[in-house]
Amino acid sequence: MGQPLRAVLGEDQPIVREGIMAILGRAGIDVVAAVDNAVDLVRVAEEHRPDVVITDIRMPPALEADGLLAVRRIRAVRPDTAVIVLSQFLEASYALDLVGDDPRGVGYLLKEKVASPQILIDAVERVMARDSALDPDVISALLGRKRPEDDPLAALTPKERQVLALMAEGHSNTGISEQLFVSVAAVERHVTGIFLKLGLSQTASGQHRRVAAVLRYLGQ
């Protein structure tokens, strides 16, 4: 049997922190440190070198985007560290800042989703597999933003919009086919059509590059 995953947790609300620790513990994930501020989060991540860092975005000392800034510092030193940030509010800009040009091992969830333990555990599994795990509500907000009348999104079919949303969340073609109950070949055709209509480079066809490309487009 392999060693359990090791996690570091940043959350300033004691009840929420204990709840997340309990969820992770039941899933066999070892929380090696749990702190209530971003300064300590960076420190314990450097000390313990965890597999995954899970943190709230708004936390002390400034109670702004301190958690987000902390995980960016952590990944700057150890890029292979998987991270999941939790937000009380739907802030698409935070997700875009977190992902940047490399969505591998990155997750962004609304904190309310933690009430469903399996969602958090699924996100941990995805970021540990070097995939991304972006909250569907965040992607829906990006898709629903007011855009120019001539925006290419208007040319997408309903099925293509579904595929685009799942692609942006970080799902592979196989994962999308399972979600939509269609063949992988059908998904590939939709993806090709989406890239052509949005004017995205076909060189971004790799899983991680295409997520970054789609998110950059949606974030414009």
Automatic annotation (TrEMBL):
InterPro entries: CheY-like_superfamily, NreC/VraR/RcsB-like_REC, Sig_transdc_resp-reg_C-effctor, Sig_transdc_resp-reg_receiver, Tscrpt_reg_LuxR_C, WalR-like. The keyword rRNA-binding does not apply. SUPFAM superfamilies: C-terminal effector domain of the bipartite response regulators (SSF46894), CheY-like (SSF52172). Residues 6-128 form the Response regulatory domain. Pfam families: GerE (PF00196), Response_reg (PF00072). PANTHER family: TRANSCRIPTIONAL REGULATORY PROTEIN NARL-RELATED, TWO-COMPONENT RESPONSE REGULATOR. This is Response regulator transcription factor. It comes from Streptomyces kunmingensis.
